[in-house]
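Contributing new records

If you add data, match the layout below exactly. Sequence lines come first and carry their own label; structure lines follow with theirs. Keep one chain per record. Anything else will be rejected by the validation script.
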Amino acid sequence: MGMTIFIIKGLVRDRSRSLFPFLTVAIGVALVVFLDAYLRGTQDSFFDTTARLVTGHLMVTTRAQAQEGEAGSLETALFGVKGLKAELKGKYPDIIWTERIRFSGLIDVPDSLGATRAQVPITGLAVDLTAGSVEHQLLQLNKALVRGRVPEKSREILLSEDLCQGLAITPGARVRLISMTAEGAMAITDCTLAGTVRFGVTALDRSMVIDQLEGVQEVLRLEDRASEIVGFFSDGGYDDRRAVQIAREYNAGLNSREDGFLPVMRPLREASDLGSLIDIVSGVTGLIVLIFIVAMAVVLWNAGLMGSLRRYGEIGIRLALGESKPALYLSLLAEAFFIGLIGSVAGTLIGLVPAYYLQKVGLNIGGMMKNSTVVISEVLRARITPASFFVGFLPGLIATFLGSAISGLGIFRRSTARLAKEFSE
C-alpha cells in the first residue's frame, strides 16, 4: 500500500511523466468507446429497418420465390397461408408471425373528368391493417403517419408522403391502383387515399403503397396465398445465431423433393443478402480495439523511451541506493497501470458524451441518400450498452502496459558497476 501511494504521488507531482501518456490513453479510449457505440447503433438501425419493412427476422417463402429473389412474381406465392401460419405459431410460439404480399404496379391519378392526370410506378406492400393487428406495431404506423389516418376498410390505402407531394394529392383523394394478378391479368382498383406515411427510408419513401391484405388477396386472386410469412423475435432484437439455427432446423424437416412451391425458411442474413455485412460488423469492434492497442502501444513506447532518457539519473540513483532491477521495472509497470486506469476512465466518460447525443438525437443524413436504393434509416444513431463502459479499458490498460514493458527493458542493461563513474561524469 505504501508503494502504491508513493507511485501515485510521484505521478501527480511530476506531470511531465504522466500527462502525455494520460492524454494519449484518454483520446484513444474515447475513440474506441464512441466507435463501438456508433457501430452498434448503426447495425441495430440497419437490421431493424430491414426486418420491419422487408424481411422480418425470419422469412418463409416458396423455394421458387427464394431463388428468384426480388424479381419473383406473384405466381410463386405461398399456398395455404392460414394453415402454414398456424403451423409456424405452434412450432415457434415465441416468434410473431404475419403474412404479407409484395406487388408492383402503377398509381393513376384521375382529373375531374376521370382521365389520367398523373401516373407513377409504385412498390406495394399488403398487410393486415385490422384493429389490433401486430402490423401496426411492426411497421410503427402511428409514428410514420404524416397526414390522414390508418386505413379502416378495404379499398383504402396509404401512400408515401413524398409520392403524394409529387402527385399533388391529399388524404381523401380518389386514385386507381393498377397491378397484375397471379395469373398475369391486369387488375385495376379504385382506391381512397386514407393517409400518407414517411418511414425515413429513402428507397421506400419514393414509391411505397400500403394496402389492406384481404382486399389485395381478392383483387389479385391470391385467396389464402401470400408472398411471404415473416417472423419477429418477441423480444424485439435480432439474434443472428438463433435465426440461423431455427431456419436450419425448419428446412431440415421439409420434404427434400424438388418442388418450387414448397416453403423454405431463411434468416435475415440470407433473405436480405446481409450475411457478409453482419459478419463484418461483428468483427469490426475487435479490429478497432486491436488497431488502437498497437497504435497507442507504439506511441507510449516512444514516450517511455523519452521518459527513460529524462529519468536516466533518477533510475541510476535508485539502483545505487540498492533497489533491485526487477523491483524498479515493476514500479514502472505499476505507474503505467495507474496511468492506463485513470486515462481509461476519463476516455470512457469523454467517448460516452457524443455517443449519448447520437443515441438520443441522431444524425440525419437524408440529404446524402436522395438516390439511395438501400433500405436504411436516414437518421444515424449510436447505442450505449453495458459493454460500452468497459470496452475502452482493454486498449487503455494493455497499450500502456506494453509501452512501458518494452521501454523499461533498458533498466536491465544498466551496469551497477559503472554507476559511480556515471555520477562522477
